[in-house]
């Protein structure tokens, strides 16, 4: 394939993104290659032949390498996701997990697809019908974006954090388990406790009561690797730090040290909890769970498993 053909397609993709009103931060080669991948436009194909494959971030990177000789380092994956594909979805150009809308945000199987109206539009690039079609598309796009945004909101998982007060988490098994920790675990083993923090795969800081954490002598920033859930049990002056495990590891020795260091200034005793959706998932990690921690299984919510505990539930003196 010739360099001129590759360059021509990249320039065309850039012009399309500009015409669609994408911000300057997305008017670059990276975003152009993403649009080309979403449309299956190789250097040899015409825009009239655009298709709509389901494609993930890594396959997009592989596609750019194979067809446009652009090699991206593995750590570029998040940049592509956060600095291009996220904006494509917000602009209504791409759909996120259209084959399975409730797929978890952090799923390795996440895919994107060019939105049908956008596909019909790009197929007209370079033809006499482009300008008229573009005007029609831009008039209708705001309604389209609002429609898809509403659909995303409807798929979110509601979590009651106190009577009459709810937050919404991104869809997926991980968020379902977080909800179980708050709504099932906490009332049983830390009744009356106050929610301090909830992580969300879609936006990390799903809920954060910074003033309460500060009263407990703790200050954290956005770089601290927070647990999935933090609960303050004032009756016993305990701070429960819970990790929800659906696909990633439990509170093992390394994670125990990380959390202990992050919350070292706490005036409340620290309790470390690993939550699993069921015992099948738990069995995969039994050899990794740290001693002096607790394990809770969502499908048997009234039971708690203690790893070398000298008491039913509580913090351990590190001395």
Condensed summary:
This protein has 319 residues and is α+β, with helices and mostly antiparallel strands.
Describe the structure.
With 319 residues, this protein is an alpha+beta fold. It has two domains: 3-154, Arc Repressor Mutant, subunit A (Orthogonal Bundle), CATH 1.10.10.1820; 157-307, 3-Layer(aba) Sandwich (Trna Endonuclease, Chain: A, domain 1). 39% of the residues lie in helices and 18% in strands. It has helices at residues 3-19, 29-39, 57-68, 77-90, 116-122, 130-154, 173-189, 210-215, 253-262, 279-283, and strands at 94-96, 112-114, 157-162, 165-169, 194-200, 204-208, 229-233, 238-244, 269-276, 293-297, 305-307. The strands form three sheets. It has a seven-stranded mixed beta sheet with strand order 6-5-7-8-9-10-11. The mean pLDDT is 85.
Topology of this protein?
Elements lengths: L2 H17 L9 H11 L17 H12 L8 H14 L3 E3 L15 E3 L1 H7 L7 H25 L2 E6 L2 E5 L3 H17 L4 E7 L3 E5 L1 H6 L13 E5 L4 E7 L8 H10 L6 E8 L2 H5 L9 E5 L7 E3 L12
Helix pairs in contact: 1-2, 2-3, 5-6
Identify the notable features of this structure and list them briefly.
319 residues; alpha+beta; Arc Repressor Mutant, subunit A; Trna Endonuclease, Chain: A, domain 1; 2 domains; 10 helices; 11 strands; 39% helix; elongated
């Amino acid at each position: 394939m010739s360099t001129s053909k590759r360059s021509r397609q990249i320039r065309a993709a850039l012009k399309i993104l500009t015409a669609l009103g994408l911000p300057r931060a997305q008017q670059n080669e990276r975003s152009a290659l993403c649009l080309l991948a979403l449309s299956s436009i190789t250097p040899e194909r015409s825009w009239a032949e655009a298709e709509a494959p389901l494609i993930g971030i890594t396959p997009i990177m592989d596609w750019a390498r194979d067809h446009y000789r652009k090699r991206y380092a593995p750590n570029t994956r998040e940049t592509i996701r956060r600095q291009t594909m996220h904006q494509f979805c917000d602009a209504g150009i791409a759909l996120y997990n259209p084959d399975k809308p409730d797929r978890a945000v952090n799923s390795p199987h996440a895919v994107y697809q060019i939105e049908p109206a956008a596909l019909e539009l790009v197929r007209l690039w370079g033809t006499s019908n482009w300008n008229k079609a573009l005007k029609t598309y831009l008039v209708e796009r705001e309604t389209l974006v609002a429609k898809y945004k509403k659909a995303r909101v409807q798929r979110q998982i509601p979590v009651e954090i106190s009577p009459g007060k709810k937050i919404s988490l991104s869809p997926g098994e991980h968020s379902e388990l977080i909800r179980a920790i708050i709504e099932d675990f906490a009332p049983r083993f830390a009744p009356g406790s106050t929610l301090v923090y909830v992580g969300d795969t879609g936006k990390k800081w799903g809920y954060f009561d910074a003033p309460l954490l500060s009263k407990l002598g703790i200050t954290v920033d956005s770089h601290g690797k927070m647990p999935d859930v933090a609960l303050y049990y004032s009756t016993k002056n305990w701070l429960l730090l819970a990790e929800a495990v659906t696909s990633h590891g439990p509170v093992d020795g390394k994670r125990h040290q990380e959390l202990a260091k992050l919350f070292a200034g706490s005036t409340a005793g620290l309790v470390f909890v690993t939550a699993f959706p069921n015992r099948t998932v738990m069995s995969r990690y039994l050899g990794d769970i740290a001693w002096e921690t607790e394990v809770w299984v969502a499908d048997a919510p009234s039971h708690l498993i203690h790893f070398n505990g000298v008491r039913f539930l509580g913090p351990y003196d590190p001395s």
